[in-house]
Amino acid sequence: EIVLTQSPGTLSLSPGERATLSCGASPSVSSIYLGWYQQKPGQAPRLLIYGASSRATGIPDRFSGRGSGTDFTLTISRLEPEDFAVYFCQQYGSSPWTFGQGTKVEIK
Amino acid sequence: QVHLQESGPGLVKPSETLSLTCTVSGGSISNFYWSWIRQPPGKGLEWIGYLYYIGSTDYNPSLKSRVTISLDTSKNQFSLKLRSVTAADTAVYYCARGDYNTSPTEIWGQGTLVTVSS
Question: Does B57 touch chain A (CB under 8 A)?
Answer without folding.
Answer: no
